[in-house]
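Deviations from the work plan: none for this task. Representative record:
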Amino acid sequence: MQHAARPLKRPLWTPGVLVMLVFMFAGAVAIIARFTGGIGYVTNLTNARPWGIWVGIDVATGVALAAGGFTTAALAHIFGRHYYEPVTRPALLTAVLGYTFVVIGLLVDIGRSWAIWKPMFYWNFNSVLFEVAMCVMIYLTVLYIEFLPIVAEQFKGRVNLPGILSGLNRLVDNFLQAADRMLGKVMWVFIILGVVLSCMHQSSLGSLMLVAPTKLHPLWYTPILPLLFLVSAIAVGYPMVVFETTLATASFKLNSEMHILAPLTRITIYLLGIYLLLKIGDMAVRGTWIYLLDGTYQTNAFVVELLFGVMLPWVMLLFKTVRQSARGVFTAAALIVGGVVLNRVNVFIVGYRSPLTESGYFPSPSEILVTLGLIATLMFIYRVVVTYLPVLQAPKEVSS
Amino acid sequence: MHITRRHFFRFMGAAGAAAAVRPHSAHAWQSKAPPDPFGCLVDLTRCVGCRKCEEACAKVNDLPEPERVNCQCTIFEKDRRPDDKAYTVVNRYYTGKVDVYDKPVPTYAKVQCMHCQDPACVSACIVGALTKEENGTVRYDVTKCIGCRYCMVACPFEIPAYEYHDPITPRVMKCTFCYDRILAEGGVPGCATICPTEAITFGRRDTLLEVAKKRLKDNPVRYLQHIYGEKEVGGTSWMYLSGVPFEQVNLPILPETPSPKLSETIQHSLFSYLWSPILLFGALGGLMAWFNKNDNHPDKGGV
């Protein structure tokens, strides 16, 4: 292998990180307020509007944007395209952190956070949410198992815990050695399992709203909503990798990964094309295009989602000049990511119509601070991990 | 990444077996409604807006006393919904109906959980904390609840309310249909016992439907020829008769299809016996073996 992932070993406390810390602190304050005053104390949620951005963004969008983990794993490991391996580790890290924060977001949002274990024992097979919860729980475990070899690669043989924990050095080292040895042989099971579980819950997230046929705007309420969620998750996987890899290489001043990102965007043309086709076909078959020009904010949100989140980046990527320019690829990827974010927000928030009470919902400052705080924490941990673990492709001279 | 031939065949075998046990035509969706549930018939043409039902409900369910119990005028100036402190409320609507002197006539409407025959909330509940009982009640078990509020998202009548200001142990609050009371022989829900105009009739749902049909037939001018709740979202245990359009008294126009039908059909046809995940696992295993067969890629764990 000519490529190699290395710990970046860069100074951690940059000005950007300090900004993250400010957001983390503000988010923490809002979370403390939520657990002392209640959900009603910090959010704009009502009986007519039970789900807000903590579900729409922290959970639904978080899951969608972590799709890079399973799409790159499928490409590089299952379909044997080893050329793309350099991006699998950052994508895996994003998935690990993304799903971890989905769970943290859920803990803040559900009323009885301490009861989160109950779905493991009380099963309702009719509930879409039950299936999503089981998949997310197992998949999160799978993700940690997939990530373990990266930790082992860095620390096995040189575990050196500080202070009082140093007594555990031997034990931890043995664990890493054993895990690394065993996982090497069975990792293929976890990789396939990760893809299967992802397909299951990415689609089922779309089925969530199907139980409320009268409450979701017809532009989004379609029997193929689960298929649309699955296809859009698969389609956003590579753009998300492009998006974050570009940001990471720029932020850490690493070598550009354009030679890998450009061909990834070629695959995206097909995946996004299928999504576009399904979305337009669905609109044509159900005749929902009649709503398109009625000027309500819901319809406008749908139009923006389709035009700028799907069509525009798809057309952009058709041009070779765009695919070969780092700026063009990044712009298209950012639009696709934005389009999927808007889609999830539309399905869970904008398109949701309470049948009786007018519930114009806009998130409260505290809701926004919690969401921003969680994102900032995710980015901070990403930074810490790539600093100390071999995730990103770093130039040799910097590594130890 | 490395996959041996033996592994491959083992998993293709498993996938084949899974495909074989797959239910051939995914079962058609079936209603899980109890055969002979209790119900209540609310006759809006009889209701005078005395709000005694609110008071009785609060008393039997240990809820705080309703806001301005004896008020029958200014309280109606705001449109109220059941919430975490009241399982039922009565609202007043002016629908354009006038009496012989051209004075507008109000219509009063009590609202509470409809106790659907195939409730969306019961289908949605992640832990099965909500159940549809044999006697018709949609019952909430707080000991299972995790507070996800998916029931509230699912409910087509916008009924379940939440104790948003309890930080640690909030509950979903909604009409219990006085489960314990009606379980006892001859028991009647609190609201139905007190109604002075007999606007609320409690009984077996089938009997109530007959009563309703008789009233519609005997008094065709007084009533709209529709029993709200007979067919809405597959039928509800609570049903309404009215002389004014139902949507004008906040009873939404709803399809006859039970809300959970589509989502349950999709879930069960895709995931019963986990046939599709197992098949996908087998197929991906096969592809992985195929694509990596000539590959002496270093078997390095990690990704």
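Chain A has a mean pLDDT of 93.
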